[in-house]
Write a structure and sequence with these properties.
Blueprint: E1 3-8, E2 13-18, E3 24-42, E4 47-65, E5 70-83, E6 90-106, E7 112-126, E8 134-151, E9 154-171, E10 176-178, E11 182-194, E12 199-214, E13 222-238
Antiparallel strand pairs: 1-2, 3-4, 3-13, 4-5, 5-6, 6-7, 7-8, 8-9, 9-10, 9-11, 11-12, 12-13
């Protein structure tokens, strides 16, 4: 029977097919080079303020895959860096947690498909030594579809997903604004290369984009477009 090795990074699942029994537990750890941006637009003035950040996210996670291809995955991504909201470079923090469940199907050719859904939460902190600290938090439901193709000694995976998220924006010394529910999307592309029968590495890119409206219908209505992207490597082990 073909074995389905799922290496999932924050709602992005990379599938590897090899000839072994399917039910197993997998753990992973890695790092990436990440980018983050927020476009803040006030409706009444049409003025847009852009914030950009660079950071190094660390990825940790574990998954269980049953004999029938159903799987559950818990993943955490977090890191620090700097942002450019103010005149000087200031501290930046970003963290994400996702609990995902899905079903994978593998054909004899090695081609695999997977459907997944779950919950995800993320928080961004734009720090400042001299001004207000801004905290952006979003959470909600995610789901998507992925495909995997045997390529060379490993496999190439691609997936896309949608998310229904809610968000809040808080500033030190001010009130907290809550956004209307927003639909966004995610995309992932990765290559899984086995090193041994129970260990390997995944090189991947993953990105997300969401748009939120705060204080809808009020005089102080504003919108935020949030985008994240990361290129990294994760090592995994199968038990």
């Amino acid at each position: 029977m073909n074995k389905l090795t799922i290496v999932s990074m924050s709602c992005v699942a990379s599938l590897l097919v090899s000839p072994m029994a399917m039910a197993d537990v997998k753990v992973r750890a890695g790092a990436a080079s990440g980018s983050y941006s927020i476009d803040y637009k006030v409706k009444s003035t049409s003025v847009t303020t852009s914030v950009n950040a660079k950071y190094v996210p660390i990825n940790l996670g574990a998954s269980y895959v049953a004999d029938n291809g159903f799987y559950v995955d818990l993943g955490y991504t977090g890191g620090t860096g700097t942002h450019d909201l103010y005149t000087t470079s200031e501290s930046f923090k970003r963290s994400d947690v996702a609990l995902i469940a899905g079903k994978a199907n593998v054909r004899e050719s090695g081609f695999a498909t997977t459907f997944y859904g779950g919950i995800k939460s993320g928080q961004t902190v734009l720090g400042s030594a001299t001004a207000f600290e801004n905290k952006f938090t979003a959470s909600g439901l995610v789901g998507g579809f992925g495909m995997n193709f045997p390529v060379g000694p490993g496999s190439l995976g691609v997936n896309a997903g949608l998310g229904l998220m809610g968000a809040s924006w808080a500033q030190t010394g001010s009130t907290t604004d809550t956004a209307d529910a927003a639909v966004g999307f995610s995309f992932g592309l990765g290559y899984t290369l086995p090193i041994t029968g129970s260990m390997g590495v995944v090189i991947d890119y993953k990105g997300n984009a969401y748009s939120y409206v705060f204080n809808s219908g009020l005089s102080n209505e504003y919108s935020i477009v949030e985008k994240t992207g990361a290129v990294g490597a994760n090592f995994y082990a199968v038990f």
